[in-house]
Amino acid sequence: MAQLFSLGDIVLMKIYRIVGVGWIALCIFIGFFVFGQIRYVYWLENDTISFPFFLFIGALLLLIGGIVAGAVLHHGATWARILICSIAILSGIMCGMRAMSVWSEKGEKLFYGVIAIYSLLSAIILLLPKKYVA
Fold this sequence. Notes:
By secondary structure, the protein is an all-alpha fold. It has one domain (11-133). It is built from five helices and two strands; from the N terminus they run αββαααα. It has a two-stranded antiparallel ribbon with strand order 1-2. A hairpin with a 2-residue loop joins strand 1 (44-45) and strand 2. The longest helix is centred in the N-terminal third of the chain and has 30 residues, at 7-36. It is globular. The model has no long low-confidence stretch (mean pLDDT 83).
């Protein structure tokens, strides 16, 4: 009987599944925060659609894409690795800057620091070739 998966493939799928589920949860959490900021978005500015509206829609689309990519990451889709990795890099930069801010309180610094470290680790895992992850 032919073996469908090797032990390395199974371990790789588990690592990607852990990273994918983490990013699904993080994108849903950040999505609630971003959607809560809708009251601050100016829809029209001088009878044209405003730039903050484009940023709002772009952030929501990126987060929805992150949720979908996190769900299919363990199947080995290359586009999912690229999208999650780009979200992780952006999140790592933003949360790292927020954690180092002098206006943040200690609890906030810890929260944003943990997200920045998770983002950095998942970006490293996703940037490595598949044969080196397991």
